[in-house]
C-alpha cells in the first residue's frame, strides 16, 4: 500500500493529538485529584468552533476583525484542535486562601474558582504542548478558542475552563507570523 504525504500528515496530527490528551491526563495534579477533561476536534466540528469564534466576536465587540477572528482563521488551517479543560472543583486544602478567599467554603459560596484548578490546567497544557513539540507538530495555546469552547458544551453539564491548542503539520507554522489586530 502507498500512503501519500497528506495521509501521513493527517495520521501524525491525530496520533499527536491522542498523545497530547494522554499527557494532559497523566500530568501532576493537586492532591492527586484529576479534574482534567480533553476533547479533540477535526473537520466539520473544528470549523464549527471557528465559525462560533467569529460569531462571538461580532456579538461581543460588534466587529468582524479582531483576535478571535484571527485565531479562528488559524483554527481553520489546523489539522485538529486539542481542547484541555478543568472542571470547577474545590481542593479543601487547609490554610490556603490562594484563591483570595478565606477558605474553600467561602470561595464555593460566592462561586469563585479554586486557584489550584487553573494551576493543574496549566501543568496539563504544558505537558500536552511538550508532546506536540517532541513530535515536531506545530501548536499554539489559544485562550480565545477555549473561551468560545465554553459556549459549545463539549462536556455536557460540566462547568469547565477550556484552553484550545490547534495543531498543524505544514511547511511553515500557521501560528507564527500572525497579524496583530
Can you tell me about this structure?
The chain is of the alpha+beta class and 181 residues long. The chain is built from six helices and four strands, in the order αβααβααβαβ. It has a four-stranded antiparallel sheet with strand order 1-2-4-3, with helices on both faces. Helix 1 runs antiparallel to helix 5, helix 2 runs antiparallel to helix 3 and helix 2 crosses helix 6. It is globular and about 60 Å long. The chain starts with a helix and ends in a 13-residue tail after the last strand. The relative contact order is 0.21.
Question: What brief labels describe this structure?
Answer:
alpha+beta, four-stranded antiparallel sheet, 6 helices, 49% helix
- What integer value in Å does the Rg equal? 18 Å
Helix segment tally: 6
Major beta sheet summary: 4 strands, antiparallel
What is the helical fraction, as a range of percent? 40-55%
Classify the secondary structure makeup into a structural class: alpha+beta
Residue share in β-strands: 5-15%
What gap, in angstroms, lies between the N and C termini?
A: 46 Å
- Topology, number of strands: 4
Q: What is the arithmetic mean of pLDDT?
A: 92
Could you give the order of the helices and strands?
A: HEHHEHHEHE
Low-pLDDT windows of residues: none
Strand order of the largest sheet: 1-2-4-3
Amino acid at each position: 500500500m502507498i500512503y501519500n504525504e497528506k495521509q501521513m500528515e493527517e495520521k501524525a496530527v491525530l496520533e499527536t493529538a491522542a498523545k497530547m490528551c494522554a499527557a494532559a491526563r497523566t500530568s501532576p495534579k493537586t492532591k492527586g485529584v484529576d479534574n482534567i477533561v480533553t476533547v479533540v476536534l477535526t473537520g466539520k466540528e473544528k470549523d464549527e468552533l471557528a465559525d462560533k469564534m467569529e460569531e462571538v466576536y461580532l456579538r461581543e465587540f460588534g466587529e468582524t476583525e479582531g483576535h478571535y477572528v484571527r485565531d479562528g482563521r488559524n483554527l481553520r488551517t489546523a489539522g485538529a484542535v486539542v481542547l484541555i479543560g478543568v472542571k470547577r472543583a474545590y481542593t479543601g486544602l487547609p490554610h490556603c486562601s490562594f484563591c483570595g478567599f478565606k477558605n474553600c467554603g467561602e470561595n464555593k459560596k460566592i462561586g469563585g474558582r479554586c486557584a489550584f484548578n487553573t494551576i493543574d490546567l496549566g501543568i496539563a497544557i504544558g505537558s500536552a504542548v511538550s508532546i506536540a513539540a517532541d513530535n515536531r507538530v506545530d501548536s499554539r495555546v489559544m485562550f480565545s478558542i477555549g473561551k468560545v469552547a465554553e459556549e459549545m458544551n463539549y462536556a455536557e453539564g460540566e462547568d469547565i475552563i477550556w484552553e484550545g491548542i490547534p495543531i498543524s503539520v505544514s511547511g511553515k507554522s500557521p501560528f507564527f507570523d500572525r497579524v496583530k489586530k
